[in-house]
Design brief:
Leucine-rich Repeat Variant, 40 helices
Length: about 675
């Protein structure tokens, strides 16, 4: 017997509950104590002391299994049901009577059934304990009650499984009030005897659409209970009843799913019959049932059905077969990779990508050749990337790569990189010697991901013999990435400088010079400076452009020299841009040295376009001296707008640490005229 805690009872009442810390042994349990505690509890209202209720609950605990004490406590609880007691006290008493109550307290509880306000707590007191008189009291009360109170009593009769109420509840199930009818049908389902279930079955023939769902629900729950009780035949009859074409699709599918679970073969024959039939509504459910079939021959049997299905059903079948992950299933799915339907192809490709290996490579390669859709292309490449089989699959893919061309070859090269397949390195290096620029570019992009520092010499050799000039930037980028995988910058420089010393090819030497910033050490910088005096003008220009991209400010003096003694105006412009870039890199931590460099830039500026370029960088400098530099250009109408913007940005950046300087600068904006 379940003992309700006072915490639960008061929580249901919406009261604040204090933890019960007093043991049952700390209270005496005699008639005098019971009488005194009951009297105190009769006046209980929310917010008052819980002590009397706590004591009564302990009395109830002590009484369990002790008939004499139970009668005394029950009599006391009956007193709490008198009209003079508060509603909270009555509710608490009903909860305790649900634990120890008997027919002795039934007259007092029955009186509560006559009042709409107390019907709920009366039903709670009656609970589900066996009592013919309690059932009679509930049935009698039904004719006197209306609305929610009637619903509570109907529900109580269902909870108590009162077989004598079937006819009465059947009448209420035909009530025009849908809520009453639904509650009555639910109660009949809970009673669940032959008569009650027969009534529910009969209601199906009656035309009340509003009750259709609750009747169906009741029948389904009845079938579930029959299965639990071992009567699978009776349950199957109910589910078969709800599989008819005239019923809503969701009902039919639920019934069909239940029937599959009841079939001795797990539903295998039922699924096959459904696939051969014309009932399209049940086919998706039938196909989904294939996942759980146990027989070893299932995949082979249903794979034969795959080509006969409609495309949307084929998608479902592919997913079902894929879940089985066996050779027969995979063979059938492979055959759908080249389907004429895009959704089917997508499903098949995705499935083999998760489950298959080398065998799917040729088919996926053909799928690549057959599609122009970018999204489908990505799906196929992803599948190729995810294929199982390790080196075996990689080798199959490399073989396929060598036998294809164009976009298919490029996709397979990209996939090799995604698979991190070092096995593909020789084939990728071979592709870099081709004349198709797009393939060479993709090959170098893949090599950038797969290479190690040890591959640098061979990559440089391939670059030297490059036959697709358009791919040079990708080749240089790949080699630069490979160089970063050599931990010591000096080792990088040694390789580049040694190669540079042995080469006379202008294009290759230019590439080597462009790689020197990746080394970024003193020797690399010195090599670039030396190239400024090379006999070839292309080499000199490459050296200038590369110096402007040097990663640190060690190149400042070299750029200053180029700017002041350049052989071409282009070199001066490039040097200025490089110097402005370096100056801007120090803006967040601008210091006196930074400001000197900006002063130098303004002093060397030869026209207003150059001043605008320097101002655009100066605007980000966080230093009060930057304000003065910007303010000094306000009188120049050609750069006034840029100077004003710089002043405002600098003032905003320094105002916290230099509020006066910022304020003065903003005031000066209004006074200085161009």
């Amino acid at each position: 017997m379940r003992i309700h805690s006072i915490g639960l009872s008061l929580l249901m009442a919406g009261f604040l509950v204090l933890p019960l810390r007093v043991s049952a042994d700390s209270f005496s349990c005699n008639q005098e104590e019971i009488t005194r505690t009951i009297a105190a509890a009769a006046n209980y209202e929310s917010g008052m002391s819980l002590e009397p209720l706590r004591q009564i609950e302990i009395f109830v605990r002590q009484a369990v299994g002790k008939p004499g004490l139970c009668r005394e406590i029950e009599a006391g609880l009956v007193k709490l049901l008198k009209p003079s007691s508060t509603f909270e006290a009555k509710r608490f008493a009903c909860e305790q009577l649900a634990v120890i109550g008997s027919d002795e307290s039934l007259p007092a509880v029955t009186a509560l059934l006559k009042n709409n306000d107390t019907v709920g707590i009366a039903c709670l007191a009656l609970g589900v304990r066996p009592s013919v008189k309690a059932n009679e009291a509930l049935r009698s009360a039904l004719s006197l009650l209306q609305g929610a109170a009637r619903l509570q009593v109907i529900g109580a009769l269902g909870d108590r499984c009162d077989a004598e109420s079937v006819e009465l509840l059947a009448d209420f199930a035909r009530n025009p009030d849908v809520m009453i009818a639904e509650t009555a049908i639910t109660a009949l389902r809970k009673i669940g005897n032959e008569s009650a279930l027969g009534k529910i079955t009969a209601f199906r023939a009656e035309t009340n659409p509003a009750l259709a769902s609750v009747i169906i629900g009741a029948r389904f729950r009845t079938a579930e209970q029959l299965v639990t009780n071992g009567d699978r035949k009776a349950a199957a009859a109910i589910y078969t009843e709800f599989s008819q074409p005239s019923l809503p699709v969701f009902v039919r599918r639920a019934a069909f799913t239940a029937l599959l679970q009841l079939d001795k073969d797990g539903g295998e024959q039922r699924i096959l019959d459904t696939l051969h039939g014309a009932d399209t509504a049940l086919k998706p459910v039938a196909i989904a049932g294939i996942r759980s079939l146990k027989a070893w021959s299932v995949s082979k049997k249903f794979a034969c059905e795959l080509p006969k299905l409609r495309p949307e059903e084929q998608v479902c079948m592919i997913e079902a077969l894929a879940s089985r992950d066996d050779s027969a299933a995979l063979a059938a799915i492979r055959n759908m990779i080249l389907s004429s339907d895009a959704l089917v192809r997508h499903s098949a490709v995705t499935a083999v990508g998760k489950l298959d290996g080398a065998k799917s490579v040729p088919l996926l390669s053909r799928a690549l050749a057959n599609t122009q859709d970018r999204e489908e292309l990505q799906v196929i490449e992803l599948a190729l990337s995810n294929l199982k089989g390790g080196r075996k699959t990689d080798k199959t893919m490399i073989k396929e790569m060598k036998n294809t061309s164009g976009s298919v070859k490029n996709s397979l090269i990209s996939v090799a990189a995604k698979r991190h397949s070092r096995v593909a390195m020789p084939a990728l290096l071979e592709e870099t010697t081709g004349t198709d620029a797009s393939t060479v570019r993709v090959a170098y992009q893949a090599l950038a991901k797969l290479s190690t520092g040890d591959d640098l010499p061979v990559l440089l050799e391939k670059l030297k013999n490059l036959k697709a000039p358009e791919a040079r930037p990708d080749a240089e980028s790949a080699i630069a990435i490979t160089m970063t995988k050599i931990e010591n910058p000096v080792d990088r420089t040694d390789v580049i400088c040694a190669t540079l010393a042995k080469s006379n090819d202008i294009a290759f030497r230019s590439s080597l010079l462009r790689l020197l910033p990746t080394c970024a050490d003193a020797r690399a910088l010195a090599t670039l400076k030396a190239a400024l005096k090379d006999n070839d003008s292309n080499i000199r220009e490459t050296a200038v452009r590369t110096l402007t991209e040097w990663p640190d400010d060690n190149v400042w003096d070299a750029l200053t020299g180029i700017r002041r003694q350049a052989e071409k105006e282009l070199f001066r412009t490039l040097a200025l841009r490089g110097m402005v870039r370096l100056a801007a890199k120090q803006n967040a931590a601008a210091d006196a040295k930074s400001m000197d460099r900006y002063r130098q830039l303004f002093a060397d500026a030869q026209n207003d376009d150059e001043r605008k370029l320097v101002l655009s960088a100066l605007a980000g400098a966080v230093h009060p001296d930057a304000l003065q530099l910007a303010l000094s250009l306000l009188s120049n109408s050609a750069v006034r707008a840029e100077a004003e913007l710089a002043v405002k940005k600098i003032a905003a950046a320094i105002k916290d640490k230099n509020p006066q300087a910022a304020q003065d600068a903003l005031k000066k904006l209004k006074t200085v005229k161009p």
